[in-house]
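Record filed here:
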Amino acid sequence: MQLALRTRNKRKLRLDEAARFAASAICRAGVGGRGRNYRGRARFGAVYRIDFSSKFCRPKLAATYLVVAFGFFLLHKFATTNTAGQQLADKLGERPRVVTAVGCVINEPKIVPSGFATFLLKLKSIELEGKTESTRAVWQVRWKGAPEFGDEVKIFGIAEPMAPPRNPGEFDMRAYLARHDVRRMLFARYSEDVTLIRHGSGNPVLRAAQASRTWMQNALCRGLDDAPEVKSFISGIVLGIRHETPEDIEEPFQQTGTIHLFAVAGLHVGIVAALLWVLAAVARLPRKRAAAFIIPSLFFYAAVTGLHIPALRAAVMASILVGSYFFERRVFLPNSLAAAAFFILCWNTNELFSTGFQLSFAVVGAIVLFADPLFRLLQRRAAPDPFLPQSLVRGPRRWMHSSYEWFCGGASVSLAAWIGSLPLILWYFHLVTPISLLANLVVVPIAFFVLAVALLSL
């Protein structure tokens, strides 16, 4: 009993230390870093010393959380006020303007059957009414052509504000893009309106990730030109390429609550980490060298699949798990989840308000909190007599007991994930899918097999 209490107190202490570390980092960034605003940093230091003197005092712990929240919103305010996109939008006004823009393609263009491509362009300069002005704003571009990631282009077209949603409850693309400081749509009607300046601009790591993504897709889909549905399905599950998946294929997954299979997240990153760990074991690498090889590989895979929040969250948590071999310490999952949220929000505070961030952390948090208690509850329903020796449980009875334990494990994770996602699914999509509790028990193992075979075939 005393050992259990000491273990519990140690876990609480780790959470307190993580919260104080987060508060220190965020507030230091919020007040301007080194050499500025010593008074603000001194005030925070006083709060930190007071809280450190009584680790388990609830009022001081509440004060720590308040400081973390204040630091986050201060950092968010600085990051979203007077941005490059806002400044340029204010100069252009609300009416459409004819401009010539020079910039770099910073994401993979999405090409629809009509031939129009939609992509994000990080501007270098715009020419308006004979005047050229430098800017770092990002615009969305719609053009009847096929640019590549990293292309530097010159576009002549019409810049206009984003259109609002047409129907109540419809996804608000304008608000979504505004949170990423994308406030104008540049429309180029003809292919000759765009001039290619050069290839290979932009971030070299992201360019390498994009090239790897194209190579992987071509390798996985070789010989499937006559089966576009299968091609899009494999690309969606392995690489998270959803814009090529037809609606008639996605709709059954949406209705059964299994659309998450097309979002690269913990399942995908976990399989990649497991495969890399097996390769490291076959190569007889020491654990620390294996960890040093696996951690950057996980983040590169997240970049290959588009740097979406679920993939980043899974990569951070898996990196903490693998990195524990450097420090020879056990990993506490709630701390790993909190660390993933902390790093992602330091990278972009706007992610807190995105549906993907909220769903990803709500689902994983629910699994961490509820999966184990639910497993024990289900397991007790058909557990053998505890006084019966395991050596006497043989034959069909042993097989049935093992199968039921496997079912309890899958059912507990599925139910915990459903509980965690239900409020957000109701709020954002007005949809309830209880069939997903059973569907995931069947679909997830199949997807695991498909993903593992696909990655091993590369």
